[in-house]
Amino acid sequence: MNDRNLQEELQLSGITATGNAIYARVFERSGIYTISTSRDGDETSILEKVEVTKDECHVITRNVRVRLKLINCN
Question: How far apart are CA 63 and CA 32, in angstroms?
């Protein structure tokens, strides 16, 4: 994630009962983020302008879905 002065690599923190991966790392920091996702053999996926807002005490959790595209090996 990159929020001007913050760049951080997220780590896998778990898998849901339906098989979705859960990644976490940036805590309690509202802002507008660019999320870059990559994996060996796949094209990098970039989501821009992902807004994380806050209430009186905490940030509001955002769920995003990323689909990676296999790189053509020809």
Answer: 14
Mean pLDDT of 51-63: 88
The answer to whether the beta carbons of residues 12 and 19 sit under 8 Å apart is no
Tokens 């098989």 sit on residue: 19
Instruction: Report if residue 64 sits inside a domain.
Output: no
pLDDT of residue 29: 81
Number of structural domains in the chain: 1
CA dihedral over 32, 37, 7, 54, signed as positive or negative = positive
Classify residue 65: in a domain, yes or no.
no
For the whole model, what pTM was predicted? 0.66
Angle, CA of 42, 45 and 48, to the nearest 5°: 175
Task: For tokens 């905490």, name the residue.
Answer: 58
